[in-house]
Amino acid sequence: MNAQISFLEGTFSLIHIPLDLYPTFLQPILQVLLPQGGDDSLANEVEGLSIDNKHGFLNISITPVECSVVCHSSWAKNVFEPVIKSLPRDVSRPVTISKDTYLILSVEYGAMDAGSRMMELTSPLALAGIPIFFITTYYSDFILVPSKDRHTVVKALLARDFEFIEDESAFVSPTALSHSRGKSESSDPPSTPPPSSVAELQVRTFELLKKRNVVPYISSGLSLVQCAGRDASELIDYSRRPGSSRQPMGNGHRNSWLDHVDTKLYTSLISVLAMQPRFLSITLALEDPPSLLLDRTLLNAFGDSLVGDLEGDLVPIFLDLENLPLEATGIVSGVAGKLVDEMRMTETGVGGELSYLSTARAGAVILSNEQSMKAMEVLKPLLEKE
């Protein structure tokens, strides 16, 4: 099976924090990163956590453009909103929490290269006029879609021969099937007619980016590593080691959240977040170990708590999308699709190195050092003013 797609439980908010206000919001960021359920004072915030206090989904990204947070809507309302309201209005005005909530599609894939995967997943939604955010992690891909568009998302996937598995919360890709179904006969059209083909989608995307003065750029000297924390099953349970004096908590109290995570990893994360890193993206998802995309100069701060290709040399190409509305469609599919087409990535195999990170006000196409130079040669002429 090449791809299995399912809706995660809950609704999520997208938060934009300007870099100059990052120190002001470090405390709520840490409060969300380190959830401590079971306390009556946090009764509102713990919605969106599992029974062992793990997030269903959380992404915290600090980039040269902004700090961006994707968290359960209850955390946005009960942790971030009070901080925003406590600030003078002229100070807090640049901080935004998305007015609409989002659903998250979790994607588990098989043998497809990353370039093909992105196109298969994003083009049906873009052609249906659905705005999305895309987050590539070490283990999975995640797509944010507006909650109000759930019905249209389902129809768009059905119309492209995705099929349900079990119920309407999960789909399999058409390449995974031995047969296909008929296309959906109807779909609610968006207010603006969507493009009729991927080629038209790409043309529209670059026309919009050019009109809004979006210029691709590489941040000098910034090299990234895509990696992960260790699987919880690999961690040593010191409370059960012979001779240990630690005992499970009694009196009806459940174990602490700390009993289920790698404390070395989280200590390192706190240390790095306190420094306001140049680039760090953390993704927590219930079914996966923590996933990180980080400035390779930060690796020493994590010691041996990370796994993956720690010798990687990835370069992000940034697209500052501040002048575009959140409702803009086709950005991910249009940009990634153009790069795949122009660089013949799926034929040479380097498509496996293509990934994408959407943040609240920006997008980052992430490639190997060599491929990033080629990608800039493709993107710059398309976005230069005549």
Automatic annotation (TrEMBL):
One of its GO terms (biological process) is amino acid metabolic process. SUPFAM superfamilies: ACT-like. Residues 176-197 are annotated as: Disordered. Residues 98-157 form the CASTOR ACT domain. Gene3D superfamilies: VC0802-like (3.30.2130.10). PANTHER family: CASTOR ACT DOMAIN-CONTAINING PROTEIN, CHROMOSOME 1, WHOLE GENOME SHOTGUN SEQUENCE. This is Uu.00g093520.m01.CDS01.
